[in-house]
Specification:
Layout: E1 9-13, H1 20-27, E2 35-40, H2 42-47, H3 49-58, E3 61-66, H4 72-84, E4 89-94, H5 96-109, E5 112-117, E6 129-135, E7 138-143, E8 149-153, H6 154-158, H7 162-173, H8 175-187, H9 195-209, H10 219-239, H11 248-259, H12 266-280, H13 286-294, H14 308-321, H15 336-349
Helix pairs in contact: 4-5, 7-10, 7-12, 9-10, 11-12, 11-14, 14-15
């Protein structure tokens, strides 16, 4: 088992972003004396102008780097600036594009990194994986490290688009089929296994799968979802692989991203993929359907803009997106007729 490396702190509370400077001073010794770089977007600085102004007036040396897109080149540009100009602390404030860019830049430059998400749409807030664009409409997952600290403001998350919260739910639910695929890979001698990482991923799943709170914009639910996403990130870090949270359902998502023009959040695509993977794994998927309906997360192919041909084609191409990853797709016979039957079955059950 890989050595456990936990963040220095994890804060999930109301209005913490308004007191961010004081919070960081309380958590990190001599933080205001550190040469600090913030990676964020123009939209975030417009939403929270006081945060940057307060930090600039308190920190001895602070620079704001604006992330326009999560490309590999942008991440390397940020890493170069951090390394060449000797920044000591890297802070990412924003959504997935900002945080993926920040975590990879911090990893390359070997600096401490604080993650401050403004949405809870996937487990990237705490995972050791950065998903970056590499050109030609393609994305690639790069290994890095988990944050040294995480700050989640419940109020900020509550005011984010509700579809992104629903995407976060979908990303956690994908652990259901990912864990099955990981065990399958281990039994076939294709992967190492880690019981503690499995436990963390399963615990994250159960927090959402069997949670009683149905209002996804309530403080309690946002806290639960944040905890689940952080646990998923830790599971990946401990195991040294994304397998505890990424299986055949994620390969379906990769195929949609790489070969088709489907513009819905990552978490909603993997939630749909989870239902397909459940069918291929010959498992009862009613618990997943019930959970999606409980939280009013509609991932029906029609609503998602995924027609039958796209659904079938994405599953046919899914294995090719990560040929080294052993999943149920290496065993099941994905004929066109079987996939069409799966499409209609999922469409019917999600009505």
């Amino acid at each position: 088992m890989k050595a456990l490396s936990l963040p220095m702190f994890l804060t999930i509370k109301q209005n913490v972003i308004e007191d961010l400077t004081d919070h960081l001073i309380a958590r990190i010794e001599n933080v205001t004396r550190m040469k600090t770089i913030i990676l964020t977007s123009n939209g975030i600085t417009r939403r929270f102008p006081r945060i940057i102004d307060t930090m600039k007036s308190t920190f001895n040396d602070l620079y704001v780097f604006y992330v326009e897109d999560s490309t590999y080149e942008n991440a390397l540009e940020a890493a170069r600036k951090i390394s060449v100009e000797d920044y000591e602390l890297v802070i990412g404030i924003g959504g997935g594009k900002v945080l993926d860019t920040t975590k990879y830049a911090a990893y390359v430059s070997k600096k401490r990194y604080i993650s401050i998400p403004t949405v809870l749409s996937n487990d990237g807030i705490a995972s050791p994986i950065a998903v970056l664009k590499i050109g030609g409409g393609r994305v690639k997952s790069f290994g890095c490290k988990i944050p040294d600290g995480i700050v989640i403001d419940i109020n900020v998350i509550k005011n984010a688009p509700i579809d992104l919260l629903k995407a976060g739910i979908g990303d956690v639910l994908s652990n259901f089929t990912a864990l099955y695929d990981w065990e399958l890979s281990f039994k076939n001698g294709r992967a190492k296994f880690d019981d503690f990482a499995y436990l963390l991923s399963e615990t994250a799943l159960n927090l959402i799968l069997y949670g009683r709170e149905q209002d996804i914009q309530s403080d309690d639910f946002i806290r639960q979802l944040a905890q689940a996403l952080v646990l998923s990130g830790l599971a990946m870090d401990i195991s040294g692989t994304s397998s505890p949270c990424s299986g055949s359902e994620h390969l379906f998502n990769h195929a949609l991203d790489q070969f088709y023009d489907v513009h819905i959040p990552h978490g909603l695509k993997v939630a749909l993929g989870t239902l397909g993977s459940c069918i291929f794994q010959h498992r009862d998927y009613s618990v997943i359907v019930d959970c999606l309906k409980k939280y009013h997360v509609n991932v029906s192919p029609e609503k998602s803009g995924i027609d039958k041909d796209t659904f079938v084609g994405a599953w046919m191409k899914a294995k090719s997106t990560r040929p080294e990853r052993f999943t149920i797709l290496d065993i099941v016979d994905l004929s066109t007729s079987y996939l069409e039957e799966t499409y209609y079955k999922i469409s019917e059950v999600l009505k």
